[in-house]
Design goal:
By secondary structure, this protein is an alpha/beta fold. It has one domain: Rossmann fold (3-Layer(aba) Sandwich). The protein is built from 7 helices and 7 strands, in the order βαβαβαβαβααβαβ. It has a 7-stranded parallel β-sheet, sandwiched between helices. The protein is globular and about 45 Å long. The two termini are 34 Å apart.
Length: 244
């Protein structure tokens, strides 16, 4: 007997960092599954291109910065005013800087910490009232395997990912009884534009063995399609050619 997956038709999902990489791939797969998506990002032109590709009936773009609590609330308000509800928030926006802890400026480190951790908190805080009003929902945090084991050339980045996982575990305990599932998706290196120029280069030969944005997007869609009687709290992912 086939496993009874949830139908996502009509479900409304807000995604931060949605103009490229994992966020853009998740938006495409969610629309294919019948969901409506609200895309948050800093690059207005890319948002417009994404909405045109996905269709204005299925997608809405909101120019915003996750470091701003007010911007995160605007993202949620746009979802509710346009589609009538919000069922899922996907805090996906993130920055990676590779190198020793002294290799970057104060401003660069501060921007990464505020984007990766504060931006996750602000997005979730903005989304929860709407999801609670709807009777439940999902929080799907795009984190990293760096939050499971760290790395010698990414200490501060890994620290932000450890913080995301601590937040996810605590929120699972806090929100489960209120009908909200919390999942942390933890991919290994993924072949996207993430950290290009900040420790990675375009067309890196390692990309051939890495995960793709579609691999990670599939995990996001899969956890949302679980029946409401089940929840996945963490999903760690590696490409077959990657060391775990």
């Amino acid at each position: 007997m086939p496993y009874p997956t949830r139908d996502l038709t009509g479900s409304v999902v807000a995604i931060t960092g949605a103009t490229a990489g994992i966020g853009a791939a998740a938006a495409s797969q969610l629309v294919e599954a019948g969901a409506k998506v609200v895309l948050g990002g800093r690059r207005e032109e890319r948002l417009q291109e994404a909405v045109a590709r996905l269709g204005a009936d299925n997608a809405l773009g909101v120019t915003m910065d996750v470091r701003s609590p007010a911007d995160c609330r605007r993202l949620v308000d746009a979802a509710v005013s346009t589609f009538g509800r919000l069922d899922t928030i996907v805090p996906n926006a993130g920055i990676g800087l590779y190198g020793d802890i002294l290799d970057h400026s104060d401003a660069e480190i501060e921007r990464m910490m505020h984007t990766n951790y504060d931006g996750t908190v602000w997005a979730i805080r903005a989304a929860l009232p709407a999801m609670l009003d709807a009777g439940g929902g999902d929080v799907v945090i795009v984190s990293s395997v760096a939050g499971l084991r760290g790395g010698g050339d990414e200490a501060v980045y890994a620290g932000t990912k450890f913080a995301q996982l601590g937040l996810a575990g605590s929120l699972d305990r806090e929100l489960r009884a209120k009908g909200i599932r919390v999942t942390a998706i933890c991919p290994a290196g993924t072949a996207t534009e993430f950290a290009i120029g900040a420790g990675r280069v375009e067309n890196d030969p390692r990309f051939a063995d890495w995960l793709t944005a579609d691999d990670v997007a599939h995990a996001i869609v899969t956890v949302l399609q679980q029946p409401r009687s089940a929840r996945t709290t963490m999903w760690a992912m590696w490409g077959m050619g990657q060391q775990s």
